[in-house]
Each structure stands twice: as structure tokens, then as C-alpha cells.
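Contributing: when you submit paired examples, paste them exactly as shown. First protein:
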Amino acid sequence: MAVVGEDGVVLFAEANERPLKNKRGWHAPPDAFGVVDALLDRYAGDGPVDASLTWSRRALASSPYLSRVARLAISGYQLVQPARCEADLWRAWTLRHALYRAPASADDLLLNLELRLRQRRGFRERPVRRAWDHHLCHAVTACLSSPFDEALCVVMDGMGEGSSTSVYRFRGGRLERLDRPALTNLASLGQLFSQACHAAGFDPEAGEEWKLMGLAAYGSLDEDLYRDLRGALYVGDGRLRVTRGYTPAMERLLPLRVRGHMANANLAHTAQKVFEDILMEFLGRTHQRWGGEHLVLTGGCALNSSAVGKVLRATPFRRLHVPMAPGDDGNSVGAALLGWRAANPGRTPPRFASPYLGSEISGDAVARLARFGIAPRPVPGGEAGLAEAVATDLAARRIVAVARGRAEFGHRALGARSILADPREAAMRDRINASVKFREEFRPLAPSILHEHGPDYFEDYAASPYMERALRWRPGRAPEGVRHRDGTGRLQSVGPWSDPFLKAVIRSFHAATGLPIVLNTSFNVMGRPMVHDVEDAVGVFLTSDIDVLVLGDALFRKKADRPGVPGRVSR
């Protein structure tokens, strides 16, 4: 959900999974009650309301027919080949995704918004509904948040409207589609990677492709599997194509699913290399055909930070921008900006770069904690004093959770909803994975580094403000807690564009330890979205191995009976 003001400025953006507390929020209405009420209260006023959707009317209208075809095809397939039904992963996957159907038309969406708006305005007004091409929404969000005046924009995701890829030229604040749109092209690098994720024992519907990417560093190349998977897709001029080898390649994956996660490290490594090789070939051919030095990369595939970190070394592009929310959540901003432009012909919306567009922590809710015996620890010196206190705790090997200011938009924690820790020892990474996040031991944790020190620690350093790329550490420079098995780190560059409090914490930590880096991971537990409110934050704090909690300007510390063991909250 996103809100753009009358002047075209992005006022708010947040994935609905946060307030709904349901990771990915499958099948939830985009304007759920409770979510839309708060936005109308804060932003609507008495002015007109335009509502934009991130799929075109044509795509929405075709979805019920696609759903019927999928159900009939699955039933027929089960009758013909019941014993091998699951083995043909490609067809099963494609059909299953077709069942995530949208309503029949744009008019059947946003009914909650319409009801609330009519109630507020005497049942006499309904919102203007607009619907936009899915990949165009991706491109608008990415390009208008980029630092480029001119760039080539590549959209690559699981599936858009007719194709999983699109190529645009961005110039003068406008987008021009360069490749020829396809009516139906099922070739998809995103789905290929998701199928490998499923085969490795993870759940793509829960967004667990991250796990496959993290596990890849623990495996080695299976040359036979690589040959099969790499041959499943053909890279043409401006698009991907399915080959005859696709279905046999998918059949190779199913027997691997019966093994445990770590046993599938070679599968993960091989799938990651296939992903990277196809992506780089696609980008190389795109550059060969349309040229340009600047690349804007977006869509769900741009969340693969291991691959993104290799783009500038593996392609002719000189500079790269990946937006703070390249996945489908980011499309809400693109749709809102397209709606604003339609309502304001001839005008171009202003650029935006800050990811801190989400909800704020309620000060009233923080104050209510004292009524239940949970009182903050006094910290003198205002925000500077609070940052110094947090840095002192980090240097003392305490784990600090932070929820202050406006939440980050996108999947990566950038200091506003983060768990911070001392990155110097591998034991800290293991402790956070085991007793804070409650997740697999192979999952990496990210370094947040002061931008001016980036070149001293990373090879081929380029600013990564949204934690969008993994780069290789310089030899001997990597703190063990944030060095992944393959010698990389998915870094966040902390500079003028970043949360000022996070920057102050790292500067104080640098002064105390000599290291301009802190460990940063999202403030949540596995399977749940990032914390959204005080109740979420306190719940995670009290039920995990977090030592210190910062809520707004208040600091809470557990009193432990022995080092590293959570105790009761200080009173």
C-alpha cells in the first residue's frame, strides 16, 4: 500500500504483511479494514481519492478464465498420470500459480476502501479506480527512485503480464518499452529458481528463496544438474524462451526433495550459478542491443543479492541501481505515481530515495508499558546519548533491537526495525540465528558499514544503500559474524541517505572498537514479518535472546542472572 500526495511526493509505503502480521499476506485484500482506515485518517482529508492497482484491467479480467483452465488441467493430469503427477514440477508449478487468482475486474477490488470512503463522505463518493501494467509499475518505482537521468531498466520476476521480463528506456522522467510485449511466454528465471527452492525442501510461497541463496555458499557445482537446468531456458534478444529440456530438467529435481536441507547444498549452489549465468547473459544481450552505462534492475529477481553483487563485474554496465523494494510490494508506489500522473497530465512526479516511508511506533503504546511494570532505563543526552548507550551495549556483546522512526519500505532492515550486534565473532551470528531469529544455522547476517569506509573493506565497492547486493570482502578484513561462507557480505552502506540514528550508533561503535561496521538483521523471528508495533516488538524482546530494546527514544534492558542469558526486564 502506498500514498502519493497532491504534489506527487511519496508520503507512505508499506507492505500489508506488516499490519496484518502475516508474512507475504497471500490472498489478503489490498485495502484490508484496519489498514485502509488509518491511511484515510492520516492522508485523505476532504480531497478526492484515486486508487491504483498494480495489474492492468486486461490481466484482472483474464484471471478467472486462467483459474478455470488451471483447475481443469490439473484434474485431467491427475486422471491421466496419477503416479507421476508431482514429478512434472514445471506444469504443476505453473498451474498452481494460476490458482492464485485475482477478482474478475478492477471494480471487484478496493471495495473496503470504497465502503470506508462512502461512509466518511455521506455515501456520495467512491474512489477513482485505475489499473496499470504490472511491469510498468515495477519500472516506475525503480526509475523514479534512481539517481539516473537516463538508464536502461530491466524488469525480471516470476511472471508479469504475458512475460517474466521487460526492458524499458528511462529518459527525461519517462519510460519507453523497448522489447516486444508477449501475449503468453511462460519462460521465467524467477520460477526456475523457485522450483529449485521447492526441490531443496523450502517453501517458495513463504518467500524462502532467501534460504536457497544462503545455502548455495555451502555447496559445490553439480555439473550434470547444471547442464540440465542451464539448458532449460534460452536467452534470446530481449526475452527468455523455454526449451524442450525444461520438463526433463524439472523431473531431475523431485528426487532431491526427500533429503534434508544441508544435503541439498550442491543443488542450491548449482541453482544459484544457473540463476546468475542466465541473468548475466540476459543483461549482456540487452546491453548489446540497446546500450547504455546505467542499469536499473528490478522485479523479484533483483532480490537475489548474491547475483546483483556480480552485475557490474560481469556485464558492460558501469553503474547499477536496485530500488529499496524491487518485489511486488514496491509496485504500490509505481501504481500510485502512475495514477498521480494520469490525474495531472503533463506533470512529472518528483524523484524519491528515502526508504523510510512506513508506519511509526506509537509513543502512547510505549508509555503504557510502565503501567505493567516495564519501565525504560533513563538515558541522558537525548538521541546522541541514546546512540552512544546502544554502541556501548553492542561493544559489550549485547544484542540490541531497534524500532524507532518510520519503518523501512521493502524486505531489508535498514536501521529503523533492526536487530544490531557486534560483528566481530562468529559466535554472535550463531547466537542470533539459534536463539533470536530461531532459524537455520547457515543463514548469513548483514554488515552495515559507514560509506566512507566501504572501499577499505570490500572489493569493487559501490554504495549499497538498501542492502541490495553482496560484495566480496577484502582479504583479512571481514568480521567473522558477518562474513558468509563464500567470503561475501550483503552490505548496507550507511551515509547521508541513511537513518541518522543508525549512523550515530555505528560512529560511536567505531570510536569504541575501531570497527566502522555493525551486524544488522531484521527485527523479527523466522516466519513472521518485521515488527510493526510496540506489541510485536515487546513480544519478540521477551521471548528471544535480545538483551536491549529501543522503542522510539526509550531504552529497555533485561537483567540477566549470568552473561548471555535473558532475564527479567529492568524496572
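Second protein:
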Amino acid sequence: MKNIVTTLVLSSVLLFTSCQSDYLDLEPLDAQTEASYFKTPANFKAASNDFYNKMVSWRSVDGSNIYNFMDFGTDLTSLSQEEGRGNTVEAVSDIYWRNPYKYIRANNILLNAADKYQGDKAAIAQYVAAAKFFRAWHHFFLLKRYGGVPIVTTVVDINDEVLYGKRNSRYEVMNQILKDLSEAIPDLPLEQNISGADKGHLSKWAAEAFKARVLLYEATWEKYVGTTTDGDGITTGAGSEGAAANTTAYLEEVIALTKDVMSNGGYQLWNYNSQLNNFSMYYLFNLEDAGSNPAGLDKSTNKEFILYNKYDFGLLQAGTNLSHTVGSRLAPSRKFMDMFLCTDGLPVDKSPLFQGYVKVGDEYKNRDYRLTSYFVDLATDAIPVSGAIKLFGPGGDSGSGYANRKFRAYKYGTYRAANTESADYPQIRLAEVYLMYAEALYELNGSITDAQLNESINLIRQRAGLPALTNAFVAANGLNMLDEIRRERAIELFGENSRYDDLKRWGIAEQVLNEPILGSVIQGTDYQGNSAIYKPASYPYGELSVATGKGNLNALLLDPAANRNFQRKHYLFPLSTTQQQLNTKLLQNPGY
């Protein structure tokens, strides 16, 4: 019998009356019986429509905030936060445990009603599949955050004898996720068959792409992390369910699924560089109506997003202050600025095209188009010029020397004010499918052919203004193919809630997140000795010599290594004290 989380159904009469709002928060659907509500296919569709609102997206839902899920504070950004520093602590309560189980309960209510439905089962198959997909979606969220968790596949109430069960192992949770997705995929429509009014709803390809994401995550986790984070009271080892052989099988399926989406899904990268002055990767993420870009392109041109949350300026605005938040909180670190390749495909320390750092705009020249799409001067939407960016520290013009504009409200035409931004939020897009395909091939075989690169990563690089990546190029220039595949992932998916997961599943988070965080290069630049644009006293940690594209140079030290203590235990979050008090069998994750 499956274990179940207590937060969903325990009455405040039983325990901790004063904490009722912390854990008892059921959906309005609970007020109705299934028999009175689920009478027609339209009822099932209406119930399933609400499932889409429960993915973390622009609009806040049940206290969940997008700013907890945009990779703030990783090695790629200049503004530190506690998760990246390894300062995660056990909380009293945790909405990111409670909310997913509340949503899973709604999924299970629909599935239970479907079992009892006396009408045409084929007419509701799509909505049953959606319920299974989202049940998998939320279990995967829980798995990534906590490891092994209670699996919930039934609608329980206060009299259910399994309320106080132990956590399932991560391998059991993974098996349930894959089972739900495997059952959902055949009953979901093709993208081409989804009507205009239902655009944004799940397709077969969306479910396949998500299953590929799940499989790649677990395959690499089991390969690089293994059982080192296990110990939740269920298992201290993978056993037969989590044997290393999973890695091979999972990677093979990632390749098959992504290949199917790539070949048959009908998606394409949103590449309008010729009309947008090579700024496709800026305008894609604030694409609204025809006034959102100089080419007059609207959302109907976007064939890249596979699963996404839909917004509309007139009907459903994002309601999130993107313009005044992502600029500073996603400002790039020194490491990330130097990660972007030059237009000859070489890193800055190898390319003769790299212009250095003397003038503030030099490092933007001859670079990957994504660098200028993400990080040009916010005031002018152009490569910054000397004196335009002033280093006056926190509260000044620029704390790090850089600012981000990916996801910011568009400035072309009529400016979208803060909280009214209405670009769609991508949950899965085609570029990620290409990246998963290439990574899985290399992880499986230790190699990837040029033909396979051409049908995946090189399409992304083409949009970025970079030459094709080939095995000969890698060998001739002393590069590492796996590093180049991971570089593309870091740059392409910046700010899209993947960096923390990637560093953990690759088993390198301790190494990477404990590195110091740096900003602009100072030594040998216009900043050095110029008090009109640089005030050293504003930076309490001073400067640090760091490897750059022009050798070791002093750069702003924004967060020293001494402030950072990310450990293996931080690969998982701790369970809250409330959950452990409600169910004493929910043992804490190791190290907390």
C-alpha cells in the first residue's frame, strides 16, 4: 500500500491547532462529491484545465514565487543567495512540500472519478492522461527537492490507515513517475491536433519531452551522485530498483524520446535573426503582440515552446514584477561572461577575436549572440560604452558591472510596465530537447557523431551566430566535447530553472558553488583609478585575481569563497519540522 503525506487531510483537532493554515489547504473541488461533479467529458476537461495553473510560472500561486526557481545565486549570477551558498536550513513549514501534495490530490480525484465514469471512456482519455502527467510532474518536483518522498496515488481521508507511513525510496518514486508518464503519452493528442482555443494544453510530444527530462536527470544522478544522498529511513542503497544498469536504459530512452519529438513534433527554433538584428534570444522571451519587437512578430510565430504557461496582456497578465527584478538578480558573474564563445567557436582564452576588457564594451564584441541578447546596456539596448556603467556597489548604478534583460518587459514600441508583462512562460522548449539528445548520446557512448551534433546542438549554435561544433574542431583546439555540450546547456537555458539541478545531477555542485563570485574586470580597464565610474570603497571584499580571457586579472570580488559552504547534503532540501511532528516516520534527510 502506498505511503501518504499527512499534510493533506489531518484535521487541526488532531495536532497543532494553531498551525492549521500551514498544512490544511484543500482545493474547492473537495467540497463536491465526485458523483455530483464528474458527469460529462466537459466536467473532466474543466477540472483538468486547473492543473496547468499549478506549474511554477510567472503568476504566484498558493504562495509559490517564480523567484525561487530562476537559478538566482548560482555560479552564473553575480548576486548570491542562501541556497547557492549552502545555507539551507530546516524550516518550520514548507509550501514546496505542501502544495505539490495538494495538487496531486486533485489529480487523484479526477482519476478516481474516471474509474467510476459510466460514459464514453475514450471521450475523457485525454483528461485522464493529463491527470497522470501532472501527478508525475509534481512527484518529480518533490523527488528533485527532497529525494525519496511518500507516493500518493489514491484519494485519502482522515480515516486512512496509511497516513503515518514512511517515505518511499527515490527509486520507487522514480518508477511511479515513469509509470504515470508511460500511461499518459498514448492518450495525449498530437500538437497538430490541438485546436487554437486549447493551445498550451498537453500534447504527446510535451509528455515525451518531459519524460526525457526525468530520465536524463535520474540517469546522470545515479551515474554521478549514486546513493550518497540516500538515507531517508527507507534505503541506504539503490538495490535492484536503482541499480547502475538504470543509467544505460534511461539514456537509451532519452535518445529515443527526444528523437521522436525532434523528427515528428513539428517544432522549430524561433530564429528571426535577420529581422531582429541577431537579437532572437532577447525577443523570444518577451514575445507578446506584434508591438513587442521591430519585426512585428507575435506569439503565433513561436513554434519552439512545447509546454508553456499562456499569458495575455488583455486577459491574463503575468502579475510579476519582472522588469525590476530579473535585471539585477540575474546579472551575470565574471565566470558566465567569459563562458560565452567568440564567433569563431573558441573560448575567450583561445580566440584571437576576443577584444579583452579595456573598454567596457570590448568583451561584448565578436561573441555569441546570446551574450548581447541577454546582457547589453539596459538603458540603451546596445553594447555599453565606457562611462555608461558605473561601479558604485550595491544601491549604485551597477553592483557587478552587468545587468540581465532576459525575461524583462519589452521596450520596443509601447513599454510594458512592471507587473503587466504577458509573455508566455516556457516550461519545455525545443532547444532543451536538442540539448538532452546530445547529452544523452555522449553520456551513453562517450562520443557523439558530427551528424548527431548537426541535428541538435549545432542548430542552437547557428542561431547564436557560432560555427558548427565538430569532433575535429574539439580535438584541434584542445577542447572537451562533454564540456562543450554542458556549456551550451548553461548558456541556452540561463534563468530557466535548470542550473542548480544540472550541477547536482552531474555531482559537481560542491566544487562549482563554493567558488568565489566575481564581477567586472578592473585591472587594466577604464575603471582602474577612475573614481567617477568606480568607487572601490563600495565593495567590502575588494578585488581578486582571477583567470580571464586575457590572463589573470583583478576583478570585483562580490562573494568570497569563505562565505560559501555548499555540501553534498545540500543536494536535497530538509523536511520541515511541522511535517516531522505530524508524522514521526518521515525521517529527515542526511546531514540536517
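If you have annotations for the second protein, write them as plain sentences, like these:
The first helix runs from residue 20 to 23.
The longest strand covers residues 551-559.
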